[in-house]
Specification:
alpha+beta; two-stranded antiparallel sheet; 6 helices
């Protein structure tokens, strides 16, 4: 098999292995050294406009269980009164919190929304690139990830716990959180180390395409050939 075919096969296997995950085996060890390796790869290879890096990363283990639980309590769609839809992606072995960042010497106080739109879009694009690299760097090491964007910016714990812990000023500086860890075989429940209770793990691994199918390609992919 040629080198090109070997790389292509490895990439196809990696993309098949990676799946949205919300159930975790917290008995398994994911070391800080492993997370540092992934961060090093993101730092070295993620595309950023002029290499300035328009995003920040906060990486949390379970040493502060109360803080981790605040993310779990905050990450819920409160606009849907029929569901208590907490996102157990946040209960992973590690949690990566992506934030908007404007490199110095520019300042960013989130007060001039129209003027800041360009910087917000740069942050969002670069967070997408970095998080994409994160999930496949994790998958290459036998780990799984869970994206979470159901962030309740009116949650009371922002000001009392989350923002002070992360050194942030505004809730909407947090744009994405991604759980990273070892997937559990229990697809219905996962463990909350703070409350010491099992909680629902509501997403079935590997069935995302069936449960929430994407639109056909021809609705959003346009060929000009």
């Amino acid at each position: 098999m040629s080198e090109t075919n070997t790389k292509l096969q490895a990439w196809q296997e990696l993309t098949d292995l990676r799946m949205q995950t919300s159930n975790w085996n917290l008995d398994a060890s994911v070391t800080q050294e492993t997370m540092q390796e992934i961060v090093d790869e993101i730092h070295r290879r993620t595309p950023c406009k002029q290499n300035q890096v328009h995003f920040g990363m906060h990486i949390l283990d379970w040493s502060d269980t109360a803080l981790r639980n605040e993310f779990y309590e905050m990450a819920v769609d409160r606009h849907n009164p029929e569901t208590k839809h907490y996102n157990s992606q946040t209960l992973a072995n590690w949690l990566v919190v992506f934030t908007g960042r404007i490199p110095s010497p520019l300042t960013y106080d989130y007060s001039e929304r129209n003027q800041d739109l360009l910087y917000l879009s740069l942050s969002s694009m670069e967070i997408g690139l970095a998080s994409h690299m994160l999930i496949y760097g994790a998958a290459a090491r036998g780990l799984q990830c869970g994206f979470c964007r159901c962030l309740d910016y009116r949650y009371s714990g922002w000001n009392t716990t989350i923002l002070p812990a992360l050194g942030l000023d505004y809730p909407d500086q947090v744009q994405l959180v991604v759980g990273v860890g070892v997937a559990s075989n229990n697809i219905n429940e996962t463990y909350n180390l703070h409350t010491k209770q099992m909680v629902p793990a509501f997403k079935n691994q590997g069935n995302k395409w069936a449960a929430e199918p994407k639109p056909p390609q021809d609705e959003y992919v346009n060929w000009h050939v």
